[in-house]
Write a structure and sequence with these properties.
The protein is an all-alpha fold. Helices cover about 65% and strands about 0% of the residues.
Length: about 250
């Protein structure tokens, strides 16, 4: 169960990194263009650490590139939230904010794992995730408590992505076994701190917390939206056309 557990963290970092990378050269201002790229690179670095460990655990001679470039959409286990299109800047920041709050809590909990490698990766990634959260909180507040238009766009973004947040706290059989072994964390227990932070930030941003709704799910078990296929088609094209190419 450790191998698929590690893949979830790796896939989250890789897919969100790819989404943020789409902003390169298109950011609203130069400073933000660079900042988004840096966050994408941080997440790619996290993914590489998780993939590297996952490849060792799998024991089939694969490396991080094999796991990133030669699996199909149904073999990916990232959260559905992270494969959603960038939309406008408000959508991108709402997606980032929801993930960052959860990511910080997840990594903090994983720092107490019985697995020494997981503790090490989580500790390193947590420091960068805290910076990501600081940025996304700042933007949610700036847009939410800004002009009438920015407020409206931020509220629409928050509402439209809310249905993807429930998946972050689901505990399936993989999660339960990892928790029982002391390796993983209780995702359901992260919901309280996550919701408290969201409520606090939305209050400062003069935003309304979205109403309870039916939650989309399936990404962790390999059931994705069609959007993931487009991400992978672009990301994997060169390696699949010229397997093993290096530069």
């Amino acid at each position: 169960m450790l191998f698929p557990y590690l893949l979830r963290f790796a896939d989250n970092g890789l897919i969100l990194s790819q989404r943020l990378g789409e902003w390169c050269g298109h950011g609203p201002v130069l400073e933000e263009d660079i900042a988004l790229t840096n966050v994408a690179l941080d997440l790619l670095g996290h993914a590489r650490m998780w993939y590297g460990y996952a490849a060792e655990v799998e024991g089939k001679g694969h490396g991080e590139d094999d796991l990133a470039f030669f699996r199909d959409a149904g073999d990916f286990h990232n959260l559905l939230l992270l494969e959603q299109p960038n939309g406008d800047f408000a959508v991108t920041m709402a997606r980032q904010f929801y993930f960052d709050v959860w990511h910080v809590e997840l990594l903090r909990a994983l720092s107490g794992s019985s697995d020494v490698r997981i503790r090490g990766i989580a500790g390193k990634a947590w420091k960068e995730a805290m910076y990501h959260l600081e940025r996304s909180v700042d933007w949610v507040i700036r847009l939410g408590d800004g002009t009438a238009e920015s407020h409206q766009r931020m509220q629409v973004a928050a509402d439209s992505l809310w249905m993807y947040t429930g998946e972050m706290f689901e505990m399936d059989e993989v999660d339960k076994q990892m928790l029982a072994q002391g390796v993983g964390v209780d995702l359901a227990a992260l919901h309280g701190p996550w919701r408290d932070r969201v409520n606090s930030v939305f209050a400062a941003a003069t935003l309304t917390v979205p109403a309870a709704t039916w939650m989309q799910t399936g990404g962790k078990s390999g059931r994705h939206t069609e959007k993931l296929g487009y991400i992978l088609a672009e990301m994997q094209h060169i390696q699949r056309t010229y397997p093993g190419c290096t530069w």
